[in-house]
Amino acid sequence: MKHKLSLLLLALFSIIGLQAQKLENSTLWKIEGNGLDKASYLFGTIHLTCDATIENDVKKALDDTSQVVLEIDMDDPELQTKMIKGMYMKDGKTLKDFVSEEDYQAIDSLFIKNIGVSVKTSENVKPFFLAASLYPHILDCPLQSFEVELIKIAQIQGEDVHGLETIEDQIQVFEDIPYQDQIDDLLEMAKDNLASDKKDFAKMLSVYNDENITDLLDMMDDDENSSVAKHQDKLLVTRNKNWISKIKTYANEQATFFGVGAGHLAGENGVINLLRAEGYTVTAVRSE
């Protein structure tokens, strides 16, 4: 349950992107130079997928490093409690405070059709979390997660798992973005009972499987129906920039395997470009 909740939160960050710089097609990148004694690796994940098989090049990178750092420490025993605490809207607000009766019924119908439960049971939950609860119904397959698989390998190898940010940091993002903007996305999902979302996610999976991180980012940015696109600074840019100092610290301590959403890799303010700006050599690792 702890991992399921955190994965749903992570998945929220997979829908937003920036205008991307063209990079080689690879989800695995080697970080060297700038005083590092040993190379570290940066792996772009997709948080919810149909097939989270860890390929041989990624396994080798895990073997060549001695700790795993994800967006958040998903192995934190208090993660579930912290997430539940931050799920609710502040000041006693509920969904009905932001929508017409017609729109409320549309959202309620969406939940009844897909989850079998009325949204009335959770109408005080932040809209982003409501949207996340629908993600399992967008994929026509049993859900898998790269983060869960990476944690399994770290545990087998006896390695520590850390996070680039806290769960409180991630939850705060959805407090900083107006509730109304979040609700607009729910209404878009309700318009065709997730049909467009299923189509878009299938395309995203295909692009990810091609390891085309530039096209993945462009595709996200082209989602004209996503009302949260105007909050890319909060969802992506600020977080990427905040991560760089932490990536530097971890990599200087020991060879580290970093796993973050693939949408964070490309672009002018993507992690790859930001690391290169700090003086690191960041090169694509091609599958053999």
Question: What would you say about this model in short?
Answer:
This protein is of the alpha/beta class and 288 residues long.
Give an overview in words.
The protein has 288 residues and is of the alpha/beta class. The protein has a six-stranded mixed sheet with strand order 4-3-5-2-1-6, with helices on both faces. The chain is globular and about 60 Å long. The chain has one domain. It is built from twelve helices and six strands.
Secondary structure blueprint with pairings:
Blueprint: H1 2-12, E1 28-32, E2 40-45, H2 56-63, E3 67-70, H3 79-85, H4 101-114, H5 127-132, H6 146-156, E4 160-163, H7 167-176, H8 179-191, H9 195-209, H10 213-221, H11 232-253, E5 256-261, H12 271-277, E6 281-284
Parallel strand pairs: 2-5, 3-4, 3-5
Antiparallel strand pairs: 1-2, 1-6
Helix pairs in contact: 1-3, 4-8
